[in-house]
Each structure stands twice: as C-alpha cells, then as structure tokens.
C-alpha cells in the first residue's frame, strides 16, 4: 500500500521537510496588477510584501485550478501510489479542499481522501508532517486519518493583524462582525471557530495581545508536551525575539518559526503575527 501525502502551499512548509518526507505541494496563487503568481514558486514572500506595501496594488487570491489537482493525482497514480491523503486549509476560508474532493472524483484508479484541516499555515503543516511520517512508517490510510482527527482536539491557533481591513476586504471576517465588536479601534486576537475566522478577544495593544496569546499557550503547555509555530508576516526579527522570550518561559516546548506567505498575507496584511500549537508525539 503506497500512500502519497499532498497539501497546498498555505502550509508554508520548508523545502527540506517537503523533500525529506516526499510531500507533494499544490500552490494557490495571488494576482497583483493583473499578473497571476503561484505563491512561493513565482513569487517569494519578501517580493510579495514589497510589491503590495503602502499604496501598492490590492492583491487577490485564488485556489488551485481543479486541473492542477487532477494532474498531481494522475502523476501519483502513474508512480504506483494506491492512495492519496490531501490536506488543505480550512474549507471555511477557501474552496481548495472542495477542489481536492472534486478532482479526486475525476481520477480513477487511486483513492483520494481529502482532509479539511479547519485551520491553515503551519498548523496545517503539523497535520501534513504527522501524516507523511506515518505513511513513511507504513501506517494505513485509516490509521493516519484517525490520528489526524485526534490531532484536532489539541490544535490551537491565535493570531492578530495590524490592520483588519485586509480580512474584511477579502471577506474572511464579516464587516458586521468587525463593526459591531468595535474591532477596528483595537487589536483583536482572532482564531478559528467551526472552520471560520472569528474574534477571540479584544485587546488594546499589540504587546498585550502577544502577552495574552503567550498566556494561552502556557496554560496548554502545563497539560501536555507541545510543538508550537510562531508565524509572522514579514517580521522575522520580532518573531525571533518572541521565540526567545517564549522558549525562556517554556523550555520544554518545541518551537518553529514560520511565515504567512503571499496568499495568507493578502488576507492578513504585513505585520500580522500568530502562534499555533498541537500536542507533540515524542
Ligand atoms: C483562496 O483564495 O482560496 C485563499 C483564501 C485564503 C484566506 C485566508 C484567510 C486568513 C487565514 C489566516 C490563517 C491564520 C492562521 C494562524
């Protein structure tokens, strides 16, 4: 039984992990000034933030075309794979997961199991890495899917943005919600609830929001071993400083620094920061 693990670019997995674990990545794209770029293939994160900063053009994002999924699944079939587990960003914020299901129905001779991470970014990556490690160790599709479902119990992510208009403009946080909550005047902490982004708490300043997120992490770190991702939108120094601070407070936690690439950056804006975690399997 040969199982392939597929994901999309919004997991923002480093290339060494992708190669070591034979993960297949399908890119989403971002369009700037009428020019479409597959993220992290045609456009790096740094290039993206440079292009759209200030009064720069308003970018738009697109899920991968179904045909791209079909091509990957056909190739995997040709390479002798029997099954695919295709892990994607939350179905509440993108049609990518639905695209994977549709494409799976179009390809005969290989079983495609799409998995809705109900989250995004490196937390999606946590699922992908676990699935790829299990596939390498010879676990079955059923065993991997059960483990992915179990991971949902301890998967958490909290994040904040510098400017909520990116999320509102892209329709991933309703205007009504933002206005009713008076969120535009504060630095709200956001999270995923039932696959969509909702405010978690209103906090006055960025510093206090980061402290509150760190406290939420500390509560879970008391209960179980964790792996944690610090995710930033073009703020590598701030992310490194936050990691040092968190690691001093929680020495038993394993930290990784990741980033919000062009697609997620389109909806969050430069300067966004987040923390996500899941129970670690040592
Ligand atoms: C598409 O066009 O299909 C992609 C839409 C992506 C929406 C992204 C919304 C923001 C997600 C934030 C994730 C934060 C995780 C810590």
TrEMBL record:
The keyword Ribosomal protein does not apply. Pfam families: DegV. The keyword ATP-binding does not apply. Transmembrane segments: none annotated. SUPFAM superfamilies: DAK1/DegV-like. PROSITE patterns: DEGV. InterPro entries: DegV, DegV_C, DegV_domain_contain. Keywords: Lipid-binding. This is DegV family protein.
